[in-house]
Each structure stands twice: as structure tokens, then as C-alpha cells.
Amino acid sequence: MKACERFKIFKPCKLPGREKRSASYIVSLVCFTPNLITGILLVVDSSRLPTLVAYNSSSFLILLNSSLNPLVYCWRYREIRNIVKNTVKKMFLNNQEAH
Questions:
Q1: Cα dist from 58 to 7, 65, 69, 73, whole Å
Q2: Cβ pair 16, 79 in contact under 8 A
Q3: H/E element holding 81?
Q4: Is the pTM of this model over 0.85?
């Protein structure tokens, strides 16, 4: 038995088109830009409390980016969406059989 069959490795997705890649770029841009801007403002004037609060708040967006990426990929790629659907169905079926 091949390793890919034993571990049920799926075929790799086709290389994404420009329109599919742009969604993840936009999400990354939206999440990282505020932190970059407030970081520059913090270097220029580190004594202002609102700048420090804005920088710390914008750091949350960087963490949010990690959570949004899987959602973006599920939304944009049919193959990944189908894999997630099948996995969730199997989880619920196994959970119902256990009760």
C-alpha cells in the first residue's frame, strides 16, 4: 500500500487563478495594514496613549487573519469545500453512533 493511500492524502489542488489568489491577498492586506500604519506612528511618537492602544488593537487583526484564511480557502476552492463538508458529515455521523 502506498503512503498516500494509507494516509488518504488528496490530490493537490490546481494552481489557483489570479482571481482566487486575490481574495487571500485582500484579507491579508486588510489585516496587516492597520498594524503597519500604527507601528510607524508608534515609532514616530511613542508617547501618545491612543497610538499605543491602536497598535495593540490592530495586533488583534493579525491574529484574526490566521482564523480567516481557512474560511477564505473554503469559500474559494470547491475541492477544499467538499473535503470539509465530508469531514464534518463523518464527524456528526460518528458522534450520533456513539450515543
A1: 39, 11, 17, 23
A2: no
A3: helix 78-98
A4: no
Amino acid at 57: S
Cell of 44: 514616530
Euclidean distance between CA atoms 31 and 57, whole angstroms = 11
Q: pLDDT 10s per residue in the chain (99 long)?
A: 444 444 455 555 554 555 556 777 888 898 899 999 999 999 998 788 898 899 999 999 999 998 988 888 888 888 989 999 999 999 988 877 766
Cβ atoms of 80 and 73 closer than 8 Å: yes
- Whether the Cβ atoms of residue 20 and residue 76 lie closer than 8 Å to each other: yes
CA 64 – CA 48 distance, rounded (Å)? 25
| CA dihedral sign, ordered 80, 66, 71, 37 | negative
